Amino acid sequence: MSAPSLHSIVAANKRTDIIVASIGVLVMAIAMILLAGVMIDLLASGWPRLLHGEFYTNFPSRHPERAGILSSIVGTSLVMLVTASIAIPLAVAAGLYLEEYAPRNWFTDLIEINVSNLAGVPSIIYGLLALGLFVHAFGLGETILTAGLVLALLILPVIIVATREAIRSIPLELREAAYGLGADKWQTVRLYVLPAARPGILTGAIVGLARAIGEAAPVITIGALTFIAFLPPSPLQSTPPFINFEWLWSPFTLMPIQMFNWVSRPQEAFHVNAAATGVVLMVMTLIMNGLAIYIRYHLRKLQR
Description:
mainly alpha, MetI-like fold, 2 domains, 0% strand, globular
């Protein structure tokens, strides 16, 4: 039997590429249609409340027409600030160590397996861990700091994996060129590898934060409030040292929890408020993902 010709091999590969690309486009189209359907449904239900400015400036209330999301927006923003401040430096450092410095042995393999497994652990498990460790063992209480810590643990594996993949994609020739110029290991990593991997690292970080912003189970477990009619102290102050950390110890609520509270009410007007809150939350998530795409495109453009 004669061997297949080069033309038949190329034609078969092209057909395979077309099939795989078609499946990818179909899956993406289904996902976009479902997302658009959810967004349209929330917009149709919550549009009356979205047009009222008081919805964004009022605290929650027993009266749905006067209820707002001010405390949940502020709480979500502050918790995300703590989450990003903890998760991004730790995850990038861990990914950098595992990819560039860690020796290849059974212990490193065990760490890598556990990091991959932690990315698939249900979020409620992190909430139970935080309840026992941060709330009871460390005595941090049901505070913004505790919420930031538990969400940082939740997205830590995601950012570690993204960091490792971004660093792994850097060509070996770049490192060899840096060594040829006399740079040591740390100079090569700091001046060449990390800047080249920065788009992928930032994209992974923002995607991780976009996941954390919609989580409700871990923060409910640690005692997040469903009704809060005050704001935590401002992180900034007018007197030296101009930075205030008292807000870290304040009780909090988040937008997903506010939605859960309103959906559980029997009044239809509260369901309208929940739909409007869902639109705001999805817009914030889309902005974060859009920011990740813009940063990746801009940084890659600068590297060319």
